[in-house]
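wait is this the right file?? whatever heres the structure
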């Protein structure tokens, strides 16, 4: 286990809690925090004892966005992709697939999107910029009464990042997504709830227990490989242009699952009225059914 400096990594009862741990800086995203968060996700995927992940922040903020100024390790802005291009902004000659030209927030969001463990955001306080956009790729978002969400890019003279131009309209609708991004205003927890951005709002001291209750329900009752497949099928089919795409994916997954030891255990446990003990492991037994499982690269 690596020694983390800017996150806390805690596993209990098959649930991993990742806590951004820069409370004095409102958990602003540094390159160190970014790397440690990515490493934590890698560790979680490789650990079959972990069946659900909660992400939260220490102190009074979830994440105040990218750290501005300071040393190279303290700031999370990428180098100017046009610096070697004579300032030209038509993009010619630039490989936007290259690590050096890509938005770190988007790379993080894509990593979360591809995760094979369920992700629960517990927004304990404000999430701004990347602190808001990263939550869009998490499966269940809960908020405390102190939570705020800021898609503030236009107020900084920049544009939405973290692949939020794909995620946000799908979650809250195009009109509301545009209004939030045009204005750059802070969205309060009750408005986020009304828009469907968060599932529920809790008093601060009830937020993490609520997140753990959801995670426990998953960890104790669901087959990990089934959960991993379901997560990928649901997210990937958001971009499908016809339900036939979903049908074809489901046929492949069902053909795999119905012959699996997990299916036999699930039926047996149901008939015997006991809690199931699913034998398949995400780290070794994921079927290579879909292209998304091949050649994943986030860094």
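ok assuming it is, sequence goes like this
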């Amino acid at each position: 286990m690596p020694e983390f400096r800017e996150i806390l990594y805690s596993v209990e009862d098959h649930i991993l809690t990742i806590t951004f741990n820069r409370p004095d800086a409102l958990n602003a995203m540094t390159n160190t925090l970014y790397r440690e968060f990515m490493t934590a996700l890698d560790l979680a995927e490789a650990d079959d004892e972990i069946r659900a992940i909660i992400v939260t922040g220490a102190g009074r903020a979830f994440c105040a966005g990218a750290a501005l100024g300071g040393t190279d390790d303290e700031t999370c802005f990428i180098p100017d992709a046009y610096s070697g291009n004579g300032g030209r902004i038509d993009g010619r000659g630039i490989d936007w697939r290259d690590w050096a030209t890509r938005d770190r927030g988007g790379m993080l969001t894509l990593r979360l999107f591809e995760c094979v463990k369920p992700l629960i955001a517990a927004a304990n306080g404000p999430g701004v910029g990347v602190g808001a956009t990263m939550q869009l790729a998490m499966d269940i978002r809960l908020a405390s009464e102190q939570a705020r969400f800021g898609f503030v890019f236009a107020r900084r003279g920049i544009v939405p990042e973290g692949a939020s131009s794909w995620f946000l309209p799908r979650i809250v609708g195009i009109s509301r997504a545009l209004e939030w991004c045009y204005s750059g205003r802070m969205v309060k927890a009750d408005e986020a709830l009304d828009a469907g951005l968060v599932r529920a709002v809790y008093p601060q001291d009830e937020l993490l227990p609520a997140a753990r209750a959801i995670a426990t329900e998953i960890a104790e009752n669901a087959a990990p490989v089934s959960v991993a497949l379901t997560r990928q099928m649901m997210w990937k089919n958001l971009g499908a242009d016809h339900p036939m795409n979903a049908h074809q994916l489901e046929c492949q997954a069902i053909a795999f699952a119905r012959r699996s030891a997990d299916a036999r255990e699930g039926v047996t446990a149901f008939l015997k009225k006991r809690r199931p003990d699913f034998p398949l492991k995400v780290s070794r037994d994921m079927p290579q059914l879909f292209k998304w499982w091949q050649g994943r690269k986030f860094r």
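Residues 79-88 have pLDDT under 50 and may be disordered. so i think its the right one actually
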